Structures are given as C-alpha cells and as structure tokens.
Amino acid sequence: MDLYSNCISIPIKVYIYIDAKKRRVIIPKDYLTILVNELKRFANWKGKIRYSWFWSAGVHVPNASATIPGLILVNAEWATKIVLNQDNPHMHDAFAMTIGHEMTHQEKDFYYFDLFTADGKFVNWVDEVHADFGGVQKGLDSSRSRALFAMKYKLSCKKKKDKDTRRDVDKQLDEFTKL
Ligand SMILES: [Zn+2]
Questions:
Q1: pLDDT digits (tens, 9 = 90+) for 122-172
Q2: Residue 73: phi, psi to the nearest 5?
Q3: How many angstroms separate the alpha carbon of residue 134 from the centre of ligand 1?
Q4: What is the 42 CA–ligand 1 centroid distance (Å)?
Q5: CA nearest neighbour of 51 among 108, 8, 94, 95
Q6: How far apart are CA 40 and CA 16, in angstroms?
Q7: Cα(93)–Cα(101) distance, rounded to whole angstroms?
C-alpha cells in the first residue's frame, strides 16, 4: 500500500459493509488493495483520484466529479461496485470510461453555468458528449463495443437519473431539436 491507502475513509468502508450485507455477499479480505489497485490504473494521470463519501452521500448511482481542478472524486457507490463486482470486466471498463470522462472535463471545459437558457443547455450538452467521447478514447482505447457494454453496465446500476449517466440518446436528440 502506498500513497493511495489513506484515501479510503471510514464512511466508504461503512458504505461497502452495509451494501455487502444488503446483498448478502462477502467482502473480499483484500478489498482495500482492490480499491487502491483500481485507482493505480490511472497513475499516469497528473491529478489525483480519490474515493469520497461526502461528495454524493446517499446517491446510489456510481458517479464521479471533476469540479475541483486536478482532483477527481469517485463516490461510495463506485467503491462498492469495484469491490463487489470485481470479476465483471464491464465494471472495470465502465469505471475507466467514467474516469476518462472526468479527465476530459479537467482538460478543457466549456462549462456554462447558465443552465436555464437554450445556449447554456446546448453548451453543457456539447460538453458532456465531448467528455463521453474522451472517456471512451482514454479509458477504452476508443473501442465501440467495450463502450457499449460499459454503458449497459452503468445503466444497470442506475436507479435514479443523474447528470452524468443520463446519456439517453433519444432524450438528448429531443432536447437538441427543441433548441
Ligand atoms: Zn460530465
């Protein structure tokens, strides 16, 4: 264990424990190493990636955030998926795509705070699509089929809609035609 080991907070550990109990599955003994290794895949990135319970407490959708420059926060739901779905290759791809998506936001964002105007919605929509493409390129070597399975995995995890996972193409096209 190294610099990453202290990034797994008690609330994250408790969240995984409760989730595993709910699902009646056993947490692997080396789950902290599993969590650390999943982040080590992105060791070449210049910023930091950390698990954060506080960032989206209570949201049961795997998600990540790139609001703070140089830092990507991964929520507790992702942490529990990483531990409990370790043997699912689509989970690893979905995580890589999520991190790639957030890395793309960190590189260059056209983020527009005026969410309520047509221009603002359009700029944000373009920004999200751009980040999705960046995620596939960075996380999955631009593999279309891996992206498709990764997206299906993410959809299967989704109970509620959230900002970064609602990549519903029909809805997007519908919004786009209204602009
Ligand atoms: Zn995004």
A1: 888 888 888 999 999 999 999 999 999 999 999 988 754 444 444 554 454
A2: -105, 130
A3: 10
A4: 18
A5: 8
A6: 20
A7: 12
